[in-house]
Amino acid sequence: MLERMTAFVWGPGLLVLLLGTGLILSVRNRFFQLYAWRRILRRTLGGLWKKPNAPSAQDCDALTQLQTFSAALAAAMGTGNILGVAAALCLGGAGAVFWMWVSALLGMMLTYAENVLAQRYVYTRQDGTRIGGPMAYLRGGLHSRVLAVGYAVCCVAASLGMGNMTQRSAISTLAADVLSIPPVAVAVGTVGLLGCILQRGAKGVGGVLQWLMPLLAAAYLLAAVAVVIRNFGALPGALRQILCGTFGIRAVGGGISGAFLRDAVRVGLRHGVFSNEAGLGSSALVHAGGASHDGELQGLWSMVEVALDTLVCCKLTALAILTGGALERDADAGSIISAAFSSVFGFASS
User: Fold this and answer.
1) Is 4 helix (H, G, I), strand (E, B) or coil?
2) Rounded to an integer, what distance in angstroms lies between the CA atom of residue 269 and that of residue 77?
3) How far apart are CA 59 and CA 293, in angstroms?
4) 175, 350 in Cβ contact below 8 A?
């Protein structure tokens, strides 16, 4: 039942709708995400060292820009960047990595539009509560309460399946394989830590993520880079695998396989969207709660998040797996990750 629902939700229809919209937006904006990358970095990461304007009384409890960025990045980066990449390589081959990059480039324009709309249609209730995100522009832009309520309901369902259950499964699987920690202990510890953080409120959660997310992301990226450097001699072969798999070229005997190409495109695009969540509205929900109401700036920040998620983190994960030869040894995603990093850090899956 769940497999049929997953196949329907993540089928070709959704991918065509999301990435097709991203392609239309990219063409109409002359592929802004490619030619304006200097402006994007200057206004986002370059602005973190500038002294922010004093917030209004209404925005004192809102998230700062760094907290908003960290929260949005935390929502996107996680299982999809690690186990999701390993699963994509198993199902679609090395060529799936290239199509994940394609989904990221199109998704950058899609998430930009999401955040611009979220800020344009944000409104304040009589009690002073700001309402933003996809619900705001579905109600204010399309004048449809039904779509707004429907989206909110789907968000609750997605938070259980795509958010909590998937992340918990990934944590418990890797903890059991690498550290032999029982899944029950992982579940109890995770719930306890999460409860302590949530008691601090939205501002407190943002404060924790402000230092925790950059630290965790940097630690993982450095670990992946260490694996690639350790197996640097295999890097040309890994890149050749990606190039050949992108167009369905057989590894043995030459020729082009339509089945290989189909799997690489389908799996790569699907896992790319799953990883960076462009078009799903999660980024707009987070950025709508920030102190900055600049729609263009929030859109630019969301583009950086997608780029870091898929073009940087997913790419390094894939290269660590391919250069370490882990994909050839096991077809289980958790064991593949353990095997890839064991060449540097000395652990191995049981």
Assistant:
1) helix
2) 17
3) 10
4) no
For the chain, percent of residues with pLDDT exceeding 70: 79
Per-residue burial over 21-56, b = 16 or more CB atoms within 10 Å of its CB, e = otherwise = bbbebbeeeebbbeebeeebeebbeeeeeeeeeeee
The whole-angstrom separation of Cα 214 and Cα 209 is 8
Amino acid found at 46: G
Distance CA 79, CA 93 (A): 19
Distance of CA 149 to the CA centre of its chain: 25
Q: Could you give the CA distance from residue 277 to residue 10 in angstroms, rounded to a whole number?
A: 12
- CA torsion 192-194-199-201 (nearest 10°) is 180
SS3 of 256, please?
strand
Residue 322's nearest CA partner among 217, 236, 220, 226 is 236
Strand partners, 63: 290
Q: Note every long-range contact of 190-196, with CB atoms under 8 Å and residues 24 or more positions apart, other chains counting.
A: none
pLDDT tens digit string along 235-258? Answer: 998 888 888 878 766 554 444 555
Phi-psi region of 25 (alpha: psi -120 to 50; beta: other; left: phi over 0): alpha
What is the predicted pLDDT for the residue at 261?
A: 63
**How many CB atoms are closer than 10 A to CB 294?**
15
* Model pTM score: 0.80
